[in-house]
């Protein structure tokens, strides 16, 4: 169960050799174009909402990033599970990269949610079920990232982080359930596009938002992963030299 | 596995009885928290009585955290971690044993805190069945999760600060659930409390399974 | 450097068989390719300067430190595949006592004895053997002197009846009488069929005790002592 197929220095998996590639560059360009289209439709072409006014435009980035914060959290759990199962460093770093990007998207969701709440409800924060769940997700992700940051051997750190990462999913479910029950006892507005049906250009803007934000998410995870992978490679270099130096100590005797 | 669990739990409880750290430090801390709440909130306006369920469980969580820190500090001493790995004890058994000893300590703490709120806050206690069920299930949830995250943080230089950061967000549903269930019991509407007992049971079940399978890998190379 | 066919291999498998074993502590190769063969009932002394890798070698043989390259077979178990199943069959006396300070001597010995699957009678006889019965048995370990703790750790070790004894500086912190007890325990254990690997700074005493001497330096077994079975002293 705890045997390593390769030592901490061994690179049994193959991985990237630079932070970017042709594919990631194309992906980056496509992402930028999608963000441009989103700006065009979200801020200029789509109309203001009857009730919410211009604040509705925040939704075009808020809703997609909230969704992706959960996607990132699931990706972390999947990466952690595969790591525990196959001892794959590749998947461990996928888990790490998605957790970091998920934390960023969670923070972005919280900020945009508050910016939307101020004009709509008159306050930055209400104890809305979804907003509260999102805040709890942020704290859970920060816990995971704290384990990633501990000063310990790669093996120790990765294993402990993987257990915490795997538990993110049940934790998120139970937290959401409890917060939902907790808040439905007291009626409060939920952060959604309830009321008027969204349609036409507004629906298209939201759709564009999903595409642009998802592309940004993928691009960031890939780059974060590649950097993390290269960092590990740098750490892994020089085992032969280290062994030779170590043996030389014995000759002095 | 159960034999090993029993061995570990008996050892831990014997150690606590001999050292009296739980009795001399954790219990007074728990009561101190109750007194501090009275200072922070105005005791004359019935606020304390109204807020009793929440304050009670906050006090349990914070003082329970001390008991859990202690449970792993004991195992970190002078080569004990290596001795445990060499002992031949099954990791799942160690996990269940430590969970059991933490749970027993929590139960004692909860009884004393119950007397504490009844006396200090003048809370009248009703709905015994729901109260007891909540205490049993919440204790199981706190000790199963606490022991698992305890070993995640064990052996690290940052363990004292890492454990609360990891554990308290995870235990947020238990805090919400136990508090609502207590409110339901004390306000004479127990039917609102039982779903929470169910949710906390699911929570405890998830963590027992995670602990049984996760403890072995986590004990390595720490 | 590469005696691939140890002379003593006929019939019985060696208790310890290492070839080019590498163990990393973080990024530091504490063992940088150790070759070592130890047969059953042998008493082997590890010597070498501080930092030569003695402690890491003993911990690796106990299955505590992962072997990341080379061959490592202990008690018939391949440590690169399975480090767990060898653990309850070895007894490691390490720098740390492995004792709970707040429990009494008797409680400690009994707990570790039962944990290893042995019976309480083993705990009692181990305590008698090390002079821990009577008044001392009820004292908290935290109140003991260094030598008394050492004796308690040894009592826990012998109660487990290990097949392979790994003793890291067993003589340290003991008075002359205590050291004599250690030597006696080691000889009795070897006579009873156990294998003992120990490190010691008490070289005069340890050389008398040992059948073989292995010198470690820079994380490898140095040539002068021979890595295979050719390092006999007596």
Key terms:
heterotrimer; A: about 250 residues; mainly alpha; about 75% helix; disordered N terminus; C: about 230 residues; alpha/beta; Rossmann fold; 6-stranded mixed β-sheet; 4-stranded antiparallel β-sheet; 6 helices
Describe this protein's structure.
The complex is a heterotrimer of chains A (253), B (222) and C (234). Chain A is an all-alpha fold. Chain A has a domain at 58-233. Chain A has eight helices and no strands. Chain B has one domain (2-219). The radius of gyration of chain B is 18 Å and the shape is globular. Chain B has helices spanning 2-19, 21-40, 47-50, 52-76, 80-86, 91-120, 128-153, 159-186, 194-219. With 222 residues, chain B is mainly alpha-helical. Helices cover 28% and strands 25% of the residues of chain C. Chain C contains six helices and ten strands; from the N terminus they run βββαβββαααβαβαββ. Chain C has 234 residues and is of the alpha/beta class. The longest helix of chain C is centred in the last third of the chain and has 16 residues, at 176-191. Residues 1-11 and 225-234 of chain C have low confidence and may be disordered. In chain C, the strands form two sheets. A six-stranded mixed β-sheet of chain C has the order 6-7-8-3-9-10, with helices on both faces. In chain C, α2 (105-115) packs across α3 (120-129), α2 (105-115) runs parallel beside α4 (146-159) and α3 (120-129) crosses α4. Chain C has helices at 54-61, 105-115, 120-129, 146-159, 176-191, 203-209, and strands at 16-25, 28-38, 43-47, 67-74, 77-78, 90-93, 164-168, 195-199, 212-217, 220-221. Chain C has a single domain, classed as P-loop containing nucleotide triphosphate hydrolases (Rossmann fold). The chains are: A mainly alpha (253), B mainly alpha (222), C alpha/beta (234).
Order of helices and strands of chain C: EEEHEEEHHHEHEHEE
- Kindly report the greatest chain-chain contact and the residue count on each side: A-B, 32 and 30 residues
Taken in chain order, the helices and strands of chain B follow as: HHHHHHHHH
How are the strands of the biggest sheet of chain C laid out side by side? 6-7-8-3-9-10
Number of strands of chain C: 10
Helix content percent band of chain C: 25-40%
* Class inferred from helices and paired strands of chain B: mainly alpha
Low-confidence parts of chain C, pLDDT < 50 over ≥5 residues?
A: 1-11, 225-234
Distance, first to last CA of chain B: 22 Å
Reported for the largest beta sheet of chain B, the result is:
none
User: What is the CATH architecture term of chain C?
Assistant: 3-Layer(aba) Sandwich
Radius of gyration of chain C: 17 Å
Described by strand count, sense and barrel closure, the largest sheet of chain C is: 6 strands, mixed
């Amino acid at each position: 169960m705890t045997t390593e197929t390769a030592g901490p220095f061994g690179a049994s998996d193959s991985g990237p050799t630079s932070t970017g590639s042709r594919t990631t560059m194309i992906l980056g360009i496509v992402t930028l174009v999608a963000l441009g289209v989103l700006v065009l439709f979200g801020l200029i072409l789509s109309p203001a909402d009857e009730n919410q006014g211009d604040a509705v435009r925040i939704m075009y980035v808020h809703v997609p990033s909230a969704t992706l914060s959960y996607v990132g959290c699931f990706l972390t759990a999947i990466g952690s599970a595969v790591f525990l199962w196959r001892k794959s460093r590749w998947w461990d770093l996928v888990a790490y990269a998605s957790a970091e990007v998920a934390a960023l998207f969670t923070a972005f969701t919280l900020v945009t949610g508050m910016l939307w709440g101020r004009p709509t409800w008159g306050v930055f924060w209400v104890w809305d079920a979804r907003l509260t769940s999102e805040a709890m997700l942020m704290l859970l992700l920060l816990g995971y990232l704290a384990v990633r940051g501990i000063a310990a051997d790669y093996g120790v750190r990765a294993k402990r982080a993987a257990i915490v990462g795997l538990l993110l999913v049940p934790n998120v479910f139970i937290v959401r359930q409890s917060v939902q029950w907790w808040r439905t006892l007291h009626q409060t507005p939920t952060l959604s596009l309830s009321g008027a049906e969204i349609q036409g250009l507004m629906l298209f803007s939201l759709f564009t938002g999903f595409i642009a934000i998802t592309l940004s998410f993928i691009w960031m995870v890939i780059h974060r992963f590649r950097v993390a992978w290269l960092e590990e490679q740098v750490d892994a270099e020089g085992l032969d030299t280290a062994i030779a130096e170590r043996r030389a100590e014995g000759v002095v005797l | 596995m159960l034999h090993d669990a029993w061995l570990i739990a008996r050892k831990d409880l014997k150690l606590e009885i001999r050292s009296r750290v739980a009795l001399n430090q954790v219990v007074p801390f728990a009561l101190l928290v109750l007194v501090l709440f009275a200072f922070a909130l105005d005791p004359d306006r019935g606020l304390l009585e109204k807020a009793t369920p929440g304050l009670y469980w906050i006090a349990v969580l914070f003082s329970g955290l001390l008991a859990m820190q202690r449970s792993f500090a004991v195992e970190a001493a002078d080569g004990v971690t290596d001795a445990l790995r060499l002992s031949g004890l099954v990791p799942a058994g160690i996990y269940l044993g430590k969970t059991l000893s933490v749970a027993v300590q929590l139960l004692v703490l909860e009884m004393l805190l119950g007397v504490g709120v009844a006396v200090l806050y003048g809370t009248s206690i009703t709905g015994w069945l729901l109260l007891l069920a909540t205490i049993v299930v919440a204790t199981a949830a706190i000790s199963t999760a606490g022991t698992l995250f305890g070993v995640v943080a064990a052996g690290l230089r940052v363990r004292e600060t890492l454990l609360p950061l990891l554990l308290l967000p995870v235990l947020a549903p238990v805090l919400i659930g136990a508090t609502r269930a207590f409110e339901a019991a004390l306000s004479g509407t127990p039917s609102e409390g039982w779903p929470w007992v169910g949710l906390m049971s699911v929570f405890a079940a998830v963590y027992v399974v995670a602990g049984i399978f996760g403890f072995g890998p986590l004990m390595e190379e720490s | 450097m590469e005696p691939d066919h140890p002379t003593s291999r006929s019939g019985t498998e060696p208790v310890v068989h290492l070839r080019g074993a590498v163990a990393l502590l973080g990024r530091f190769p504490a063992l940088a390719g150790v070759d070592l063969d130890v047969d059953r009932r042998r008493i082997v002394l590890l010597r070498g300067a501080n930092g030569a890798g003695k402690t890491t070698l003993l911990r690796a043989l106990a299955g505590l430190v992962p072997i990341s390259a080379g061959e490592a077979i202990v008690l018939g178990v391949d440590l690169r595949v399975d480090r767990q199943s060898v653990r309850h069959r070895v007894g490691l006396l390490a720098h740390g006592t492995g004792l709970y300070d707040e429990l009494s001597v008797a409680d400690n010995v009994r707990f570790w004895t039962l944990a290893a699957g042995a019976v309480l009678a083993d705990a009692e006889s181990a305590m008698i053997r090390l002079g821990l019965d009577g008044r001392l048995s009820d004292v908290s370990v935290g109140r003991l002197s260094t030598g008394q703790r050492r004796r308690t750790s040894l009592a826990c070790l012998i109660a487990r009846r290990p097949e392979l004894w790994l003793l890291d500086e067993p003589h340290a912190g003991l008075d002359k009488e205590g050291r004599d007890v250690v030597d006696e325990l080691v000889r009795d254990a070897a006579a009873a069929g156990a294998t003992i690997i120990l490190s010691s700074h008490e070289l005069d005493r340890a050389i008398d005790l040992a059948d073989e001497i292995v010198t470690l330096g820079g994380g490898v077994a140095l040539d002068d002592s021979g890595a295979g079975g050719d390092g006999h002293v007596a």
